[in-house]
Amino acid sequence: MGTIHRKCDVVVVGSGGAGLSAALSASVLGSKVLILEKADVFGGTTALSGSGTWIPRHHHQSTMGVHDSREDVLTYLRSAGPDGWHNSEAPRWDAFVDHAPKMLEFLERHTPLRFAPSREPDPYAEAPGGKNFGRMVSPRPLPPSILGPLGKKLRGPQYTPWLNYEEVLDTGLYAMPKRWLLRYAPRILYRIATNKRVMGNALVIGLLKGCLDNHCELWTGVQAQRLTQEEGRITGVVVKRAMQTLEIEAEKGVVLASGGFEWNPEMMARYFPNYPVEWTGSPSTNTGDGQRMAQAVGARLDRMDQALIYGTTPEMYEGNVRGVPSGDYVLPHSMIVGHHGKRFMNEKQTNIGLALLKRDEATGRPAHLPAWRIYDAQYAAKYPHALPKGTFEGTRFSDRTLAGLAQQIGLDPETLVATAKRFSEFARTGVDEDFGRGSTIWDRTRAIDARQKPNPALGTVEVPPFYAMPFKPSFLGTKGGPRTNPKGQVVTEEEVVIPGLYAAGNVMANPFGTKGMGGGTTIGPVMTWGYICGLNVHDEVR
Fold first, then answer.
1. DSSP H or E run through 98
2. Which domains does the chain have, with CATH numbers?
3. Banded model confidence at residue 1, pLDDT cuts 50, 70, 90
Protein backbone atom coordinates (compact mmCIF):
# COMPACT_ATOMS: atom_id res chain seq x y z
CA MET A 1 0.00 0.00 0.00
CA GLY A 2 1.19 3.48 -0.80
CA THR A 3 0.97 6.59 1.35
CA ILE A 4 -2.61 7.34 2.43
CA HIS A 5 -3.43 10.90 1.45
CA ARG A 6 -6.81 11.09 3.16
CA LYS A 7 -8.84 8.92 5.51
CA CYS A 8 -12.59 8.96 5.91
CA ASP A 9 -15.44 6.58 6.65
CA VAL A 10 -17.12 6.56 3.26
CA VAL A 11 -15.99 7.58 -0.21
CA VAL A 12 -18.71 8.33 -2.76
CA VAL A 13 -17.59 8.41 -6.41
CA GLY A 14 -19.95 10.73 -8.30
CA SER A 15 -22.13 13.71 -7.39
CA GLY A 16 -25.41 13.08 -9.21
CA GLY A 17 -28.67 12.13 -7.53
CA ALA A 18 -27.46 8.67 -6.52
CA GLY A 19 -24.12 9.80 -5.12
CA LEU A 20 -25.48 12.77 -3.19
CA SER A 21 -28.32 10.69 -1.72
CA ALA A 22 -25.81 8.07 -0.58
CA ALA A 23 -23.54 10.70 0.92
CA LEU A 24 -26.42 12.40 2.67
CA SER A 25 -27.86 9.29 4.29
CA ALA A 26 -24.45 8.08 5.47
CA SER A 27 -23.45 11.49 6.81
CA VAL A 28 -26.74 12.08 8.64
CA LEU A 29 -26.10 8.82 10.48
CA GLY A 30 -22.67 10.10 11.49
CA SER A 31 -20.22 8.83 8.89
CA LYS A 32 -17.42 11.08 7.66
CA VAL A 33 -18.05 11.25 3.90
CA LEU A 34 -15.87 12.37 1.00
CA ILE A 35 -17.59 12.97 -2.36
CA LEU A 36 -15.41 12.74 -5.47
CA GLU A 37 -16.58 14.29 -8.75
CA LYS A 38 -14.68 13.77 -12.01
CA ALA A 39 -15.97 16.96 -13.65
CA ASP A 40 -15.16 20.46 -12.50
CA VAL A 41 -18.80 20.95 -11.50
CA PHE A 42 -21.22 19.00 -9.33
CA GLY A 43 -24.51 17.42 -10.32
CA GLY A 44 -23.81 14.80 -12.97
CA THR A 45 -26.61 13.74 -15.27
CA THR A 46 -29.17 14.63 -12.59
CA ALA A 47 -28.41 18.34 -12.97
CA LEU A 48 -29.40 18.12 -16.65
CA SER A 49 -32.60 16.20 -16.01
CA GLY A 50 -36.23 17.24 -15.85
CA SER A 51 -36.18 15.88 -12.27
CA GLY A 52 -39.43 13.97 -12.60
CA THR A 53 -39.23 11.51 -9.71
CA TRP A 54 -41.30 8.31 -9.63
CA ILE A 55 -41.89 7.43 -5.98
CA PRO A 56 -44.80 5.10 -5.23
CA ARG A 57 -46.53 5.46 -1.84
CA HIS A 58 -44.99 8.88 -1.16
CA HIS A 59 -46.39 10.99 1.68
CA HIS A 60 -47.84 13.67 -0.61
CA GLN A 61 -50.35 11.23 -2.08
CA SER A 62 -52.80 11.94 0.72
CA THR A 63 -53.16 15.54 -0.46
CA MET A 64 -54.22 14.20 -3.87
CA GLY A 65 -56.75 11.70 -2.58
CA VAL A 66 -54.59 8.81 -3.84
CA HIS A 67 -54.47 5.49 -2.06
CA ASP A 68 -51.41 3.43 -2.91
CA SER A 69 -50.27 0.24 -1.26
CA ARG A 70 -47.18 -1.92 -1.30
CA GLU A 71 -49.11 -4.69 -3.03
CA ASP A 72 -50.44 -2.22 -5.64
CA VAL A 73 -46.90 -1.19 -6.55
CA LEU A 74 -45.51 -4.72 -6.67
CA THR A 75 -48.49 -5.86 -8.74
CA TYR A 76 -47.78 -3.02 -11.17
CA LEU A 77 -44.09 -3.90 -11.41
CA ARG A 78 -44.88 -7.55 -12.01
CA SER A 79 -47.49 -6.78 -14.66
CA ALA A 80 -45.75 -3.95 -16.51
CA GLY A 81 -42.07 -4.61 -15.81
CA PRO A 82 -39.59 -6.08 -18.29
CA ASP A 83 -40.66 -9.52 -19.48
CA GLY A 84 -38.98 -12.33 -17.59
CA TRP A 85 -37.23 -10.09 -15.06
CA HIS A 86 -39.46 -10.72 -12.07
CA ASN A 87 -37.73 -13.80 -10.68
CA SER A 88 -34.24 -12.29 -10.74
CA GLU A 89 -35.21 -8.73 -9.80
CA ALA A 90 -37.99 -9.32 -7.23
CA PRO A 91 -35.71 -8.80 -4.18
CA ARG A 92 -34.47 -5.44 -5.51
CA TRP A 93 -38.00 -4.41 -6.51
CA ASP A 94 -39.09 -5.16 -2.95
CA ALA A 95 -36.23 -3.05 -1.56
CA PHE A 96 -37.11 -0.14 -3.83
CA VAL A 97 -40.81 -0.23 -2.95
CA ASP A 98 -40.02 -0.36 0.78
CA HIS A 99 -37.39 2.39 0.79
CA ALA A 100 -38.60 4.88 -1.84
CA PRO A 101 -41.20 6.67 0.32
CA LYS A 102 -38.79 6.71 3.27
CA MET A 103 -36.14 8.26 1.04
CA LEU A 104 -38.44 11.11 0.00
CA GLU A 105 -39.40 11.89 3.61
CA PHE A 106 -35.72 11.71 4.57
CA LEU A 107 -34.78 14.27 1.92
CA GLU A 108 -37.46 16.69 3.07
CA ARG A 109 -36.27 16.34 6.68
CA HIS A 110 -32.57 16.78 6.03
CA THR A 111 -32.39 19.15 3.04
CA PRO A 112 -34.24 22.27 1.86
CA LEU A 113 -35.88 20.15 -0.84
CA ARG A 114 -39.65 20.20 -1.00
CA PHE A 115 -41.41 18.06 -3.57
CA ALA A 116 -44.55 18.92 -5.50
CA PRO A 117 -46.84 16.09 -6.63
CA SER A 118 -47.72 15.77 -10.30
CA ARG A 119 -50.85 14.47 -11.97
CA GLU A 120 -48.83 12.52 -14.50
CA PRO A 121 -50.10 8.94 -14.90
CA ASP A 122 -48.13 5.74 -14.85
CA PRO A 123 -47.18 4.87 -18.46
CA TYR A 124 -49.13 1.61 -18.05
CA ALA A 125 -51.90 2.98 -15.86
CA GLU A 126 -54.35 0.40 -17.20
CA ALA A 127 -52.17 -2.50 -16.01
CA PRO A 128 -52.97 -4.17 -12.68
CA GLY A 129 -51.69 -1.95 -9.90
CA GLY A 130 -51.26 1.08 -12.20
CA LYS A 131 -52.36 4.57 -11.17
CA ASN A 132 -53.99 7.31 -13.22
CA PHE A 133 -51.88 9.79 -11.26
CA GLY A 134 -50.13 10.21 -7.93
CA ARG A 135 -46.72 8.54 -8.10
CA MET A 136 -44.74 11.39 -9.66
CA VAL A 137 -43.17 14.30 -7.78
CA SER A 138 -40.59 16.94 -8.60
CA PRO A 139 -38.53 19.42 -6.55
CA ARG A 140 -39.69 22.97 -6.00
CA PRO A 141 -37.33 25.76 -7.12
CA LEU A 142 -34.19 26.58 -5.14
CA PRO A 143 -31.46 29.22 -5.64
CA PRO A 144 -27.80 28.20 -5.89
CA SER A 145 -26.97 31.02 -3.47
CA ILE A 146 -27.87 28.75 -0.53
CA LEU A 147 -24.72 26.80 -1.37
CA GLY A 148 -22.45 29.78 -0.80
CA PRO A 149 -19.25 29.64 -2.89
CA LEU A 150 -20.15 26.08 -3.95
CA GLY A 151 -23.06 27.52 -5.96
CA LYS A 152 -20.55 28.46 -8.66
CA LYS A 153 -19.59 24.79 -8.92
CA LEU A 154 -23.09 23.68 -9.93
CA ARG A 155 -23.49 22.07 -13.35
CA GLY A 156 -25.67 24.40 -15.41
CA PRO A 157 -28.76 23.21 -17.27
CA GLN A 158 -28.68 22.62 -21.02
CA TYR A 159 -31.47 25.17 -21.29
CA THR A 160 -33.33 27.33 -18.77
CA PRO A 161 -37.08 26.68 -18.74
CA TRP A 162 -37.78 28.43 -15.38
CA LEU A 163 -40.73 26.07 -14.90
CA ASN A 164 -41.02 22.95 -12.76
CA TYR A 165 -41.59 19.50 -14.16
CA GLU A 166 -45.24 19.43 -13.11
CA GLU A 167 -45.85 22.94 -14.45
CA VAL A 168 -44.76 21.72 -17.88
CA LEU A 169 -46.26 18.24 -17.86
CA ASP A 170 -49.56 18.88 -16.07
CA THR A 171 -50.55 21.57 -18.57
CA GLY A 172 -50.83 22.00 -22.31
CA LEU A 173 -47.56 23.92 -22.39
CA TYR A 174 -46.09 21.99 -25.32
CA ALA A 175 -49.18 22.57 -27.44
CA MET A 176 -50.12 26.10 -26.31
CA PRO A 177 -47.03 27.78 -24.86
CA LYS A 178 -48.23 31.37 -25.31
CA ARG A 179 -51.35 30.74 -23.26
CA TRP A 180 -49.55 29.01 -20.43
CA LEU A 181 -46.45 31.20 -20.41
CA LEU A 182 -48.70 34.24 -20.04
CA ARG A 183 -50.30 32.61 -17.03
CA TYR A 184 -46.91 31.73 -15.58
CA ALA A 185 -45.25 35.04 -16.47
CA PRO A 186 -45.21 36.51 -12.92
CA ARG A 187 -43.83 33.26 -11.55
CA ILE A 188 -41.13 33.09 -14.23
CA LEU A 189 -40.09 36.70 -13.73
CA TYR A 190 -39.80 36.15 -9.99
CA ARG A 191 -37.63 33.10 -10.49
CA ILE A 192 -35.39 34.94 -12.92
CA ALA A 193 -35.04 37.85 -10.50
CA THR A 194 -34.20 35.57 -7.58
CA ASN A 195 -32.21 33.07 -9.68
CA LYS A 196 -34.29 30.18 -8.44
CA ARG A 197 -33.39 27.10 -10.41
CA VAL A 198 -35.85 24.41 -11.39
CA MET A 199 -35.88 20.75 -12.45
CA GLY A 200 -32.56 18.91 -12.13
CA ASN A 201 -30.65 21.96 -10.94
CA ALA A 202 -33.08 22.46 -8.04
CA LEU A 203 -32.74 18.81 -7.07
CA VAL A 204 -28.94 18.94 -7.01
CA ILE A 205 -28.92 22.25 -5.10
CA GLY A 206 -31.08 20.75 -2.37
CA LEU A 207 -29.02 17.57 -2.13
CA LEU A 208 -25.73 19.48 -2.07
CA LYS A 209 -27.03 21.75 0.68
CA GLY A 210 -27.98 18.74 2.77
CA CYS A 211 -24.55 17.22 2.27
CA LEU A 212 -22.82 20.48 3.21
CA ASP A 213 -24.95 20.85 6.35
CA ASN A 214 -23.94 17.34 7.37
CA HIS A 215 -20.24 18.06 6.90
CA CYS A 216 -19.55 16.07 3.75
CA GLU A 217 -16.30 16.98 2.02
CA LEU A 218 -16.60 17.58 -1.74
CA TRP A 219 -13.87 17.46 -4.37
CA THR A 220 -14.15 18.24 -8.07
CA GLY A 221 -11.74 17.47 -10.89
CA VAL A 222 -10.94 14.04 -9.44
CA GLN A 223 -10.73 10.91 -11.59
CA ALA A 224 -11.10 7.62 -9.75
CA GLN A 225 -8.62 5.15 -11.21
CA ARG A 226 -8.85 1.95 -9.18
CA LEU A 227 -10.19 0.49 -5.98
CA THR A 228 -7.87 -0.71 -3.23
CA GLN A 229 -8.50 -4.11 -1.69
CA GLU A 230 -7.16 -6.09 1.25
CA GLU A 231 -8.12 -9.71 1.86
CA GLY A 232 -11.10 -9.31 -0.47
CA ARG A 233 -12.41 -6.17 1.20
CA ILE A 234 -12.53 -2.78 -0.55
CA THR A 235 -10.50 -0.35 1.54
CA GLY A 236 -10.49 2.78 -0.58
CA VAL A 237 -9.78 4.27 -3.97
CA VAL A 238 -6.80 5.62 -5.87
CA VAL A 239 -7.52 8.87 -7.69
CA LYS A 240 -5.83 11.38 -9.93
CA ARG A 241 -6.22 15.02 -8.93
CA ALA A 242 -4.32 17.96 -10.38
CA MET A 243 -1.71 15.65 -11.93
CA GLN A 244 -1.18 13.91 -8.58
CA THR A 245 -2.01 10.30 -7.79
CA LEU A 246 -3.56 10.03 -4.34
CA GLU A 247 -4.77 7.12 -2.25
CA ILE A 248 -7.87 7.61 -0.14
CA GLU A 249 -8.77 5.17 2.58
CA ALA A 250 -12.41 4.43 3.32
CA GLU A 251 -12.86 2.86 6.74
CA LYS A 252 -16.39 1.63 6.01
CA GLY A 253 -16.62 1.45 2.24
CA VAL A 254 -16.85 2.97 -1.23
CA VAL A 255 -20.09 3.83 -3.02
CA LEU A 256 -19.81 3.91 -6.80
CA ALA A 257 -22.23 6.44 -8.30
CA SER A 258 -20.21 7.52 -11.32
CA GLY A 259 -22.92 7.23 -13.98
CA GLY A 260 -23.08 5.29 -17.22
CA PHE A 261 -20.60 4.54 -19.99
CA GLU A 262 -22.34 6.26 -22.90
CA TRP A 263 -19.27 8.43 -23.59
CA ASN A 264 -16.93 5.42 -23.82
CA PRO A 265 -16.71 4.47 -27.52
CA GLU A 266 -15.21 1.04 -26.90
CA MET A 267 -17.85 0.03 -24.36
CA MET A 268 -20.67 1.38 -26.50
CA ALA A 269 -19.40 -0.55 -29.51
CA ARG A 270 -19.26 -3.70 -27.41
CA TYR A 271 -22.64 -3.50 -25.71
CA PHE A 272 -24.61 -1.55 -28.32
CA PRO A 273 -23.06 -2.73 -31.60
CA ASN A 274 -24.18 -1.11 -34.85
CA TYR A 275 -26.13 1.66 -33.12
CA PRO A 276 -25.25 5.24 -34.04
CA VAL A 277 -24.31 7.08 -30.86
CA GLU A 278 -25.04 10.75 -31.49
CA TRP A 279 -26.60 13.62 -29.58
CA THR A 280 -25.74 11.99 -26.26
CA GLY A 281 -27.60 13.80 -23.50
CA SER A 282 -25.34 13.38 -20.47
CA PRO A 283 -22.05 14.84 -19.22
CA SER A 284 -19.03 13.72 -21.22
CA THR A 285 -17.40 12.47 -18.01
CA ASN A 286 -19.69 9.40 -18.07
CA THR A 287 -17.06 7.05 -19.46
CA GLY A 288 -17.64 3.87 -17.46
CA ASP A 289 -15.02 4.40 -14.74
CA GLY A 290 -17.17 2.75 -12.07
CA GLN A 291 -17.99 -0.26 -14.22
CA ARG A 292 -14.32 -0.72 -15.09
CA MET A 293 -13.11 -0.46 -11.47
CA ALA A 294 -15.80 -2.80 -10.16
CA GLN A 295 -15.04 -5.44 -12.76
CA ALA A 296 -11.34 -5.25 -11.87
CA VAL A 297 -12.10 -6.38 -8.30
CA GLY A 298 -14.33 -9.25 -9.40
CA ALA A 299 -17.77 -7.68 -9.71
CA ARG A 300 -20.36 -9.23 -11.97
CA LEU A 301 -21.38 -6.82 -14.72
CA ASP A 302 -25.03 -7.17 -15.69
CA ARG A 303 -27.72 -5.46 -17.81
CA MET A 304 -25.02 -3.86 -19.92
CA ASP A 305 -27.35 -3.68 -22.94
CA GLN A 306 -29.87 -1.47 -21.12
CA ALA A 307 -30.10 2.33 -21.39
CA LEU A 308 -32.32 5.38 -21.07
CA ILE A 309 -32.93 6.38 -24.69
CA TYR A 310 -35.03 9.35 -25.71
CA GLY A 311 -35.86 11.61 -28.59
CA THR A 312 -33.69 14.70 -28.46
CA THR A 313 -32.89 17.90 -30.31
CA PRO A 314 -29.22 18.84 -30.79
CA GLU A 315 -27.99 21.87 -28.86
CA MET A 316 -24.56 23.23 -28.01
CA TYR A 317 -23.50 22.56 -24.42
CA GLU A 318 -20.03 23.10 -23.03
CA GLY A 319 -18.65 23.42 -26.55
CA ASN A 320 -20.10 20.14 -27.83
CA VAL A 321 -23.32 19.06 -29.52
CA ARG A 322 -25.57 17.39 -26.96
CA GLY A 323 -29.07 15.99 -27.09
CA VAL A 324 -31.76 17.89 -25.19
CA PRO A 325 -34.90 15.81 -24.50
CA SER A 326 -37.63 17.02 -26.82
CA GLY A 327 -41.39 16.80 -26.86
CA ASP A 328 -41.90 17.78 -30.51
CA TYR A 329 -42.68 14.28 -31.77
CA VAL A 330 -45.57 13.67 -29.34
CA LEU A 331 -47.67 16.53 -30.73
CA PRO A 332 -50.37 15.99 -33.40
CA HIS A 333 -49.57 16.24 -37.13
CA SER A 334 -46.33 14.35 -36.69
CA MET A 335 -45.22 10.73 -36.98
CA ILE A 336 -42.04 8.68 -36.83
CA VAL A 337 -40.99 6.27 -39.58
CA GLY A 338 -38.08 3.87 -39.93
CA HIS A 339 -35.67 3.33 -42.81
CA HIS A 340 -38.44 1.30 -44.47
CA GLY A 341 -40.70 4.39 -44.60
CA LYS A 342 -43.26 2.89 -42.21
CA ARG A 343 -44.28 3.70 -38.66
CA PHE A 344 -42.98 1.19 -36.14
CA MET A 345 -44.24 2.36 -32.75
CA ASN A 346 -46.65 4.52 -30.78
CA GLU A 347 -44.81 7.83 -30.86
CA LYS A 348 -46.21 8.93 -27.50
CA GLN A 349 -44.96 5.99 -25.47
CA THR A 350 -42.43 6.85 -22.79
CA ASN A 351 -40.43 3.69 -23.48
CA ILE A 352 -39.48 4.73 -26.97
CA GLY A 353 -36.02 3.29 -26.43
CA LEU A 354 -37.44 -0.23 -26.55
CA ALA A 355 -38.52 0.30 -30.15
CA LEU A 356 -35.27 2.00 -31.13
CA LEU A 357 -33.17 -0.82 -29.66
CA LYS A 358 -35.08 -3.58 -31.47
CA ARG A 359 -32.84 -5.68 -33.72
CA ASP A 360 -33.57 -7.52 -36.93
CA GLU A 361 -33.54 -11.21 -36.04
CA ALA A 362 -31.90 -12.20 -39.32
CA THR A 363 -29.08 -9.65 -39.44
CA GLY A 364 -28.72 -8.53 -35.82
CA ARG A 365 -28.67 -4.92 -36.97
CA PRO A 366 -31.12 -2.22 -35.81
CA ALA A 367 -34.52 -3.12 -37.19
CA HIS A 368 -35.77 0.42 -37.85
CA LEU A 369 -32.79 2.77 -37.96
CA PRO A 370 -32.20 5.29 -39.33
CA ALA A 371 -35.56 6.74 -38.29
CA TRP A 372 -37.18 10.04 -39.16
CA ARG A 373 -39.67 12.49 -37.64
CA ILE A 374 -42.17 13.68 -40.23
CA TYR A 375 -44.26 16.86 -39.83
CA ASP A 376 -46.60 18.84 -42.08
CA ALA A 377 -47.64 22.49 -42.49
CA GLN A 378 -50.39 22.13 -39.88
CA TYR A 379 -47.73 21.26 -37.33
CA ALA A 380 -45.58 24.20 -38.40
CA ALA A 381 -48.53 26.60 -38.05
CA LYS A 382 -49.74 25.32 -34.67
CA TYR A 383 -46.41 24.55 -33.03
CA PRO A 384 -43.73 26.76 -34.60
CA HIS A 385 -41.86 26.72 -31.28
CA ALA A 386 -41.51 22.92 -31.50
CA LEU A 387 -40.63 22.55 -35.17
CA PRO A 388 -36.87 21.87 -35.40
CA LYS A 389 -35.01 24.90 -36.72
CA GLY A 390 -32.30 22.99 -38.57
CA THR A 391 -29.52 24.82 -36.75
CA PHE A 392 -27.15 21.94 -37.47
CA GLU A 393 -26.47 20.56 -40.93
CA GLY A 394 -28.56 17.53 -41.80
CA THR A 395 -31.18 18.09 -39.11
CA ARG A 396 -34.02 19.60 -41.16
CA PHE A 397 -35.38 18.81 -44.61
CA SER A 398 -38.49 20.13 -46.34
CA ASP A 399 -40.38 19.67 -49.59
CA ARG A 400 -43.73 20.51 -51.15
CA THR A 401 -44.52 16.82 -51.50
CA LEU A 402 -44.04 13.77 -49.32
CA ALA A 403 -42.54 11.94 -52.29
CA GLY A 404 -39.96 14.69 -52.74
CA LEU A 405 -39.20 14.67 -49.01
CA ALA A 406 -38.73 10.91 -49.12
CA GLN A 407 -36.19 11.20 -51.91
CA GLN A 408 -34.20 13.75 -49.91
CA ILE A 409 -33.90 11.51 -46.87
CA GLY A 410 -33.45 8.20 -48.65
CA LEU A 411 -36.90 6.63 -48.15
CA ASP A 412 -39.13 4.94 -50.69
CA PRO A 413 -41.55 7.68 -51.88
CA GLU A 414 -44.55 5.42 -52.41
CA THR A 415 -44.17 3.86 -48.99
CA LEU A 416 -43.92 7.19 -47.17
CA VAL A 417 -46.95 8.57 -49.02
CA ALA A 418 -48.96 5.45 -48.14
CA THR A 419 -47.85 5.61 -44.51
CA ALA A 420 -48.93 9.24 -44.16
CA LYS A 421 -52.27 8.49 -45.84
CA ARG A 422 -52.99 5.61 -43.47
CA PHE A 423 -51.92 7.64 -40.42
CA SER A 424 -54.12 10.55 -41.50
CA GLU A 425 -57.11 8.23 -41.76
CA PHE A 426 -56.48 7.14 -38.18
CA ALA A 427 -56.36 10.79 -37.10
CA ARG A 428 -59.74 11.45 -38.69
CA THR A 429 -61.37 8.47 -36.98
CA GLY A 430 -59.48 9.01 -33.73
CA VAL A 431 -58.23 5.42 -33.60
CA ASP A 432 -54.66 4.36 -34.42
CA GLU A 433 -55.27 0.81 -35.58
CA ASP A 434 -51.57 0.02 -35.93
CA PHE A 435 -49.97 1.12 -32.65
CA GLY A 436 -52.76 2.53 -30.49
CA ARG A 437 -51.46 6.08 -30.25
CA GLY A 438 -53.92 8.06 -28.17
CA SER A 439 -55.67 5.00 -26.73
CA THR A 440 -54.15 4.94 -23.23
CA ILE A 441 -54.49 7.18 -20.18
CA TRP A 442 -50.83 8.18 -20.63
CA ASP A 443 -51.37 9.14 -24.27
CA ARG A 444 -54.52 11.14 -23.57
CA THR A 445 -53.19 13.15 -20.64
CA ARG A 446 -49.48 13.77 -21.24
CA ALA A 447 -48.29 16.51 -23.63
CA ILE A 448 -51.52 16.70 -25.60
CA ASP A 449 -53.39 19.36 -27.56
CA ALA A 450 -56.90 19.40 -26.11
CA ARG A 451 -58.08 21.36 -29.16
CA GLN A 452 -57.40 18.38 -31.37
CA LYS A 453 -60.49 16.30 -32.22
CA PRO A 454 -61.52 13.51 -32.06
CA ASN A 455 -58.26 12.32 -30.43
CA PRO A 456 -55.97 14.86 -28.72
CA ALA A 457 -52.92 12.74 -29.54
CA LEU A 458 -53.52 12.45 -33.29
CA GLY A 459 -53.46 14.82 -36.26
CA THR A 460 -53.34 14.29 -40.00
CA VAL A 461 -50.05 14.58 -41.91
CA GLU A 462 -51.28 15.75 -45.31
CA VAL A 463 -50.87 19.52 -45.76
CA PRO A 464 -47.76 20.76 -47.62
CA PRO A 465 -45.04 21.68 -47.14
CA PHE A 466 -43.67 18.68 -45.30
CA TYR A 467 -40.67 18.50 -42.96
CA ALA A 468 -38.31 15.80 -41.73
CA MET A 469 -35.76 15.56 -38.94
CA PRO A 470 -33.57 12.58 -37.97
CA PHE A 471 -34.82 10.58 -35.00
CA LYS A 472 -31.68 9.18 -33.48
CA PRO A 473 -31.38 6.85 -30.48
CA SER A 474 -30.00 9.47 -28.10
CA PHE A 475 -28.51 7.95 -24.96
CA LEU A 476 -29.27 9.90 -21.78
CA GLY A 477 -27.54 7.22 -19.75
CA THR A 478 -26.63 3.56 -19.93
CA LYS A 479 -28.12 1.37 -17.21
CA GLY A 480 -25.71 -1.52 -16.86
CA GLY A 481 -22.89 -2.22 -14.46
CA PRO A 482 -21.99 -4.12 -11.31
CA ARG A 483 -24.85 -6.20 -9.98
CA THR A 484 -25.99 -5.39 -6.46
CA ASN A 485 -28.07 -7.10 -3.81
CA PRO A 486 -31.06 -5.48 -2.03
CA LYS A 487 -28.65 -3.64 0.31
CA GLY A 488 -26.81 -2.04 -2.59
CA GLN A 489 -23.74 -4.22 -2.06
CA VAL A 490 -21.83 -5.23 -5.19
CA VAL A 491 -21.61 -8.97 -5.80
CA THR A 492 -19.35 -11.30 -7.78
CA GLU A 493 -20.31 -13.71 -10.56
CA GLU A 494 -21.09 -16.23 -7.81
CA GLU A 495 -23.41 -13.69 -6.08
CA VAL A 496 -20.91 -13.32 -3.22
CA VAL A 497 -20.80 -9.85 -1.63
CA ILE A 498 -17.63 -7.82 -2.14
CA PRO A 499 -17.24 -6.29 1.33
CA GLY A 500 -17.03 -2.52 1.39
CA LEU A 501 -18.27 -1.95 -2.17
CA TYR A 502 -21.65 -0.46 -3.08
CA ALA A 503 -23.18 0.91 -6.28
CA ALA A 504 -26.14 3.14 -7.08
CA GLY A 505 -27.52 5.01 -10.08
CA ASN A 506 -26.61 4.44 -13.70
CA VAL A 507 -23.35 2.75 -12.74
CA MET A 508 -25.24 -0.27 -11.34
CA ALA A 509 -27.18 -3.01 -13.12
CA ASN A 510 -30.57 -1.34 -13.19
CA PRO A 511 -33.47 -3.45 -11.82
CA PHE A 512 -35.87 -1.97 -14.39
CA GLY A 513 -33.49 -1.63 -17.34
CA THR A 514 -34.49 0.29 -20.43
CA LYS A 515 -38.18 0.01 -19.60
CA GLY A 516 -39.40 2.82 -17.38
CA MET A 517 -42.30 2.14 -15.02
CA GLY A 518 -42.95 5.86 -14.72
CA GLY A 519 -41.74 9.07 -16.32
CA GLY A 520 -39.19 9.41 -13.50
CA THR A 521 -38.08 5.80 -13.17
CA THR A 522 -34.50 6.88 -13.50
CA ILE A 523 -34.36 9.65 -10.89
CA GLY A 524 -36.65 8.04 -8.30
CA PRO A 525 -34.89 4.67 -8.14
CA VAL A 526 -31.34 6.07 -8.37
CA MET A 527 -31.91 8.33 -5.36
CA THR A 528 -33.56 5.46 -3.53
CA TRP A 529 -30.61 3.17 -4.22
CA GLY A 530 -28.23 5.91 -3.13
CA TYR A 531 -30.20 6.23 0.11
CA ILE A 532 -30.08 2.45 0.63
CA CYS A 533 -26.33 2.37 0.00
CA GLY A 534 -25.73 5.21 2.44
CA LEU A 535 -27.69 3.48 5.21
CA ASN A 536 -25.85 0.20 4.78
CA VAL A 537 -22.32 1.44 4.20
CA HIS A 538 -22.59 3.43 7.44
CA ASP A 539 -23.13 0.14 9.28
CA GLU A 540 -20.13 -1.58 7.66
CA VAL A 541 -17.56 -2.82 10.13
CA ARG A 542 -14.09 -3.66 8.86
1. helix 86-110
2. 4-159+197-220+477-538 (3.50.50.60), 321-471 (3.90.700.10)
3. very low
